[in-house]
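Sanity check

After download, print the first record. It should look like this:
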Amino acid sequence: MTVEIRAYEPMDERSWLRCRALSFLETCYYDDVWAKRPATPLVQLVAVYGSTAVGILDVEVDQELATIDTVATHPDYQGHHIASRLLARARADLPDRITTLDAWTREDVPALRWYRTHGFEESEHYLHVYKGWQEPDEGWQSPPRLTTPITAFCHASIEDEADVRGRFSRVYICRRLSQPITAGHARHHTSAP
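Expected structure tokens:
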């Protein structure tokens, strides 16, 4: 199977969205579906098989920090090191000023294993909390003339984990994984299949 790693192009959007949605489906991010691809990442890569995106990786840059915003491999193409090849290319495409590459993810064991295998170390933590429609409205407020939230997504401190888990059924630990990027990091592009 020959998969090409290249820069994202506007014609990839539909395939990019499908790849992201399908790869997230069996993870803690299963409902993080986008209808439009954001245009802001500095590094925007796709792995394509024919004309279909089977892997995607976007990296946002802020000063000396580069953050992986999205990395995903279509479920039918997992196990072929596509995400690893995308990461190698992304590292090569980072500006020289970058000193740290990081990512935030939840409790998905395969994702955590992948990051650790690629030299990322876990550090900061906070909670992602979802209020479902079946959970009590107690404590929630809305602007006048609106009902209390039916569903909600919130952040909470890790110190409040026991209380939050006692109130809500869907709570995740969000973890920062990072690695230093040394001066003169790899500046070549991988083209192997």
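If your output differs, re-run the checksum step. Summary of this record's structure: The CA atoms of residues 121 and 177 lie 5 Å apart.
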